[in-house]
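Supplementary Methods, section 5.1.

A reviewer requested that the exact input to the structure prediction be made available. We therefore reproduce it here, unchanged from the version used in the analyses.
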Amino acid sequence: MFGSKAIGMGPEPRAVWRVVALMLISIALAGCAGKKTRAPVEDRSLSTTAAAPSASAPEAAASQAEAPVLPGAENAGKPGYYTVKAGDRLVRIAMDHGQNWRDLVKWNNLENANVIEVGQVLRVVPPAAEAQAAAARPGTAARTETKPASAAASAASAAPVATPVAPQAAPSAAADDVVWTWPATGPVIVPFDEARSKGIVIGGKAGDPVYAAADGRVVYAGSGLRGYGNLLIVKHNDTFLSAYAHNQTLLVKEDQVVRRGQRIADMGSTDADTVQLHFEIRRQGKPVDPMKYLPPR
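The structure derived from this sequence is encoded token-by-token as follows.
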């Protein structure tokens, strides 16, 4: 009797065994699932941390090896040279150094004046200036003398070497010879302030005449300098430039000789909120207060 009941198993034992079996299957599946979800995460984290340095190092080395050497890099930091910064334009660089932008093109063998690169080093002084500076250094004349000569002849030959030094030592003397006149007849509505206004602003009406403030040569005529609109730059000598901005019409061209008081533009409001003439005087590229040079009204 007992043996037949154990073998046949009533409904209650069978239900117990089913529950036990289901529990065992669930435990087994949970263990398998845990192993499958953990392994890929661990593999990914290890591959990311271990492989990243080995992948980035060759790329960095390759980029450094492929970086081009920019023109003039060997002159970086030397007197008479300028390293191009972001946002620079050749016209601005030339004006800031008191030069004609066309000279910068020539001195630096530029193929396109509109294409200069950040980090490129440009010559901003004429090559002759370096030669004269070298000739003026103490002892240069003695080193360049190769032919035997008497003491009197040596003294005579040394004199011409020293003479070019005088104009360079006192460039302001030549600058003071510039005779200035007012570039427009309107009132000064904004005074000079080196931090905010690198010149003076003269008011007026659209089409009012703009005059050359002194004798000189036009070294720039165009609208390629942001913030200046239609702009004229006149070079008066090796020391002084003058700039005339926001013009409605330009009446002269680059490389044209102009005379003091000559009408060179019509007043306007290009790249400005109101009709005005923004007028600058630059001494060796540095903005100076025009009111110190213009005659009293």
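Residues 11-66 form the longest helix (56 residues). These observations are discussed further in the main text.
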